[in-house]
Amino acid sequence: MADIDAAMLDIIKGHAVGLTSGPTRDTLITDLGIDSFSIVEIVYEVEEKLGIEVPFNANENPLGDMKTVGDLIDAVKKLAGKE
Amino acid sequence: MSRRVVVTGLGGVCATGANVAEFWANAKKGYCGISRRTLTAEEYSLTLPIAPIDGFETRIEGLGRDMTRADRFTQLAIAAADEAIADAGVDFASGLGARTAAIIGTGIGGQTTIEQGYVGMMRHGRRPHPLSILKFIPNAPSSWMSIRYGLNGPAFAISSACASGAHSIGVAADLIRAGAADAALAGASEAIMTYGALETWKAMHILSDELCRPFSKNRKGLVIGEGAGVLVLEDHAAAKRRGAKIYAELGGFGMNADGKDMINPAVEGAAGAMKLALSGVGSVDPAAVYINAHGTGTLLNDPTETKAIRATFGADADKVVVSSTKSMHGHLLGAAGAIEAIAALKALHEGVVPPTINYDEPDPACDLDYCPNEARARRIDLVISNSFAFGGLNAVLAFRRV
């Protein structure tokens, strides 16, 4: 489980131009400063690095009710079947 | 169409210059940017003379994060546009941006992205990067310019092979004349220095295996280059009001199609486009005309272009000076008309004709004054920049002093 946490924080860190320090589970998604390019890239990196498939459709709100980085990480864990 | 369109800013990058100042200094020196290089893709490789831009990679980070995620042809275009805007001293934030166009051509688009994507997919089973489409679409430079500089006027790419740059500049000027925009970023970009693209060019059997020698009898063909050129175009009255430095007026633009052949150029088409461009500039002293030729250094282009210049100027053709700067920076393909318009504008501005280098053997079929090997000071009142594309598409720009 810890490896997904670390991997996710690392992926998000690479795109979080809105932050001055690294993201944590409590960081608000809206504070990350990610743009449309970054959303697509983050999904791609999650799939490549964690070997899971994200059922992401850009025509829908990709974040749903998620508000924090921790919500994102938990969603990825769920996809990875580890929760 | 009563508005007059002037050039107020220049930006460019190619093998012979990281910016316009360096490009022009090298053009006057007759500096050759062509050398033998090896391009590779996996176990394949190809060695041939090309005119690549060395060291551009070190500039990408300085162009900002967006450009680290763009294809090379967009990076080059943005570097040129940043320079042109700074040169013009134009402020788009003051409201002008809402009425500024971005017309940036390309012959191919994001070749590097396409090729890397396919190699990874076909040979290694890797999925293509999800932003590949946004990187390689031909309109990527014009779109990024609209975002980067806050431009809301017409924005699109023009693709007409080796005439893309000239078409883009001419059409952008027409948009201003027609009132569809008040200013424009206009030019083109090309970056196809990949193994796959060059092997494909080689298959046409028109590439030189040594230097590029336009109009010289021992010419062996064209040499592929890369780069971008961007002009800032403005309505003359508005440019004057803001006290802008004005390089020249785009007085004439001629475009047509041969309607004959995909490869072989036609004298009538090329001459027709030149005559159309000249019809916009009024009377002109042929002894003060400089033509920046398409001058590819191929067997077919050079005598055809020579005949077209004779058909256009008649007995006065012996008074005009012609040169092909492709002998130095190679053939920038879609961006050729853009970088060469800059060479022509600098020639007009300074009264210096850049030379046709590597010229060492007169050809009876190419019998004009090609300013061989050394730059020449000359009174220049009008410059013409010729672009004749595969597919028989012609675009000619005529700039004159304001």
Report on the architecture of this protein.
The complex is a heterodimer of chains A (83) and B (402). Chain A has 83 residues and is an all-alpha fold. Chain A has one domain (2-79): Non-ribosomal Peptide Synthetase Peptidyl Carrier Protein, Chain A (Orthogonal Bundle). Chain A has 3 helices and no strands. In chain A, α1 (2-13) packs antiparallel against α2 (36-50). The radius of gyration of chain A is 12 Å and the shape is globular. Chain A starts with a helix and ends with a helix. By secondary structure, chain B is of the alpha/beta class. Chain B has helices at 20-29, 57-60, 65-68, 72-88, 111-124, 132-136, 140-149, 164-177, 195-202, 236-241, 267-279, 301-313, 326-329, 336-350; strands at residues 5-14, 35-41, 44-50, 100-105, 155-156, 183-190, 227-235, 248-257, 289-292, 321-323, 352-353, 376-377, 382-389, 393-400. In chain B, a hairpin with a 2-residue loop joins β2 and β3. The radius of gyration of chain B is 20 Å and the shape is globular. The two termini of chain B are 18 Å apart. The A-B interface holds A 17, 37, 40-41, 43-44, 47-48 and B 65-66, 69, 127, 129-131, 134.
